[in-house]
Automatic annotation (TrEMBL):
<comment type="similarity">
    <text>Belongs to the universal stress protein A family.</text>
</comment>
<feature type="domain" description="UspA">
    <location>
        <begin position="2"/>
        <end position="128"/>
    </location>
</feature>
<dbReference type="InterPro" id="IPR006015">
    <property type="entry name" value="Universal_stress_UspA"/>
</dbReference>
<dbReference type="InterPro" id="IPR006016">
    <property type="entry name" value="UspA"/>
</dbReference>
<protein>
    <submittedName>
        <fullName>Universal stress protein UspA</fullName>
    </submittedName>
</protein>
<dbReference type="Pfam" id="PF00582">
    <property type="entry name" value="Usp"/>
</dbReference>
<dbReference type="InterPro" id="IPR014729">
    <property type="entry name" value="Rossmann-like_a/b/a_fold"/>
</dbReference>
Length: 133
């Protein structure tokens, strides 16, 4: 069993990662970090670079976790990637960060968080970054 976290290098992603670390430590299970990019741009700030990858590895190692970092640049939807990994890993929990969006923003752009919440085959814990509301 595992805890899967959807991670972006944003305040919301950091909040999700912090909570996922706590949950994985509490349950003594593997943590799988999913960092996904749509691959629709030459430079995508959502995808961690080599330096950020190394820092993330160090952070998870120092937390004493068994972990895997899944980086996807295949052009897949982030929700699809989180759900795919959660199913493949038989996740017991998915952790995601939330950001405030307007109703129009959700209508035009869709909602990754909403899709994960509605389609996940396991519980989903959603967290927000401090001061984002």
């Amino acid at each position: 069993m595992t805890v899967v976290v959807g991670y972006l290098p944003t305040p919301q992603g950091e909040a999700a990662l912090e909570q996922a670390i706590v949950e994985a430590q509490r349950a003594k299970v593997k943590l799988v970090v999913v960092n996904s990019s749509k691959g629709d741009a030459l430079v995508d700030d959502r995808l961690i670079d080599a330096r950020e990858f190394h820092l993330l590895e160090e952070r998870l190692t120092s937390a004493g976790l068994d972990f895997w970092i899944e980086r996807s640049t295949q052009g897949h939807d982030a929700a699809d990637e989180v759900l795919r990994v959660a199913q493949a890993q038989r996740a017991q929990l998915i952790v995601i960060g939330l950001r405030k969006r307007t109703t129009v923003g959700k209508f035009i752009m869709g909602s990754t968080a909403q899709r994960i919440l509605m389609q996940a085959g396991c519980p989903v814990l959603s967290v927000k970054a401090d001061g984002t509301w």
